[in-house]
Specification:
Elements lengths: L3 E6 L5 E7 L5 E5 L10 H7 L4 E5 L18 H14 L5 E6 L1 H12 L4 E7 L3
Parallel strand pairs: 3-4, 3-5, 5-6
Antiparallel strand pairs: 1-2, 2-4
Helix pairs in contact: 2-3
Length: 127
């Protein structure tokens, strides 16, 4: 389990946490479910990190990310904006998105908004 810890600033100035496993230009962004966090992806991130740079964020209000004082921003559009902001701040132009539950919904919205930036989409437990 070899990773580095970082923070990025959300579109509304929250400090949001993420881990990076591996390095390189080929990126997998792992997005957790509603009540979950970056710990959910330790196994897959470790497995993929010899070939991919794997980014595992904690969504706003979860894990080591800041809580949003405005409950109305705990919405799909906010999570999608946070994901784009994270990738932009890391200089990632294109990524495969692996999403579980809510993370899968975020990934689908990302692919619909900017299909040229989503190299692939893996959905887990998305209704």
């Amino acid at each position: 389990m070899n990773f580095t810890e970082h923070h990025f600033t959300s579109f509304d100035d929250l400090s949001l946490y993420y881990r990076v496993y591996g390095e390189g230009d080929d990126v997998v962004l792992c997005l957790p479910g509603l009540t979950r966090n970056s710990n959910d992806f330790v196994g897959i991130a470790t497995h993929l990190s010899d070939r991919w740079r794997v980014i595992t964020p904690d969504l706003r209000g979860r894990g080591q990310s800041d809580w949003d004082p405005k409950p109305q921003r705990y919405t799909l559009p906010s999570y999608v904006a946070d994901a784009w902001r994270a990738l932009d701040q890391m200089g990632v132009r294109r990524a495969v998105v692996l999403g579980t539950s809510l993370g899968g919904l975020v990934g689908m919205a990302m692919a619909a908004q900017k299909p040229d930036r989503v190299a692939g989409l893996v959905l887990n437990d998305v209704g």
